[in-house]
Specification:
This protein is of the alpha+beta class. The protein has helices spanning about 30-45, 130-145, 150, 160-170; strands at about 50, 60-65, 75-85, 90-95, 100-110, 110-120, 125-130, 160. A hairpin with a 2-residue loop joins strand 4 (about 90-95) and strand 5. The longest helix is centred in the N-terminal third of the chain and has 16 residues, at about 30-45. Bound molecules: nickel (II) ion (NI).
Amino acid sequence: MAVLPIIRLGDPVLRAVAEPVHSSRFGSRELKRLVDDMIATMRAASGVGLAAPQVGRSIRLFVFESNNAEPPIPTTVAINPEVELLGDEPEEGWEGCLSIPELRGLVPRAPALRLSALDVHGQPFERQAAGFEARIIQHELDHLDGIVYLDRMTDLGSLGYAEELDAAEEALEENGEDRAAAESA
Ligand code: NI
């Protein structure tokens, strides 16, 4: 497995609409290697999600996982994903992005969703997700459509560097639940 360079905001690949993965590529060594490399890259960057455009591949594929979430989010590969948003009111939560290092901001997202996608072998699967997991999935799906979390923010006033946001929060002596140190995806 190889850790790939992560593309940063400004590269046009992050603003392109990614192409579906063609059925002929499922089960191929090449696709498997890309997925393995993306998982290694996500872990090396301490991220909770990574979309193919972030490693320069404009195809509809993302990976995500979190051992720190409660309950833990298993390592998942989603190819040609479709998402049905569930729930009424969007919920605000902190997000960061491996393609926009160090910054965090509050982003409104649907509280729950149903994910339908294919795995690396082309097998379809469905998954209901809520809370942090639903947030990660929406963030990654956006990457496949050339959208970053900054585009989703309704108030840029919360945008800041994780270090400074954390220091400010500590000064308020709030508990760590909602800390801006939130992992990036
Ligand atoms: Ni991101």
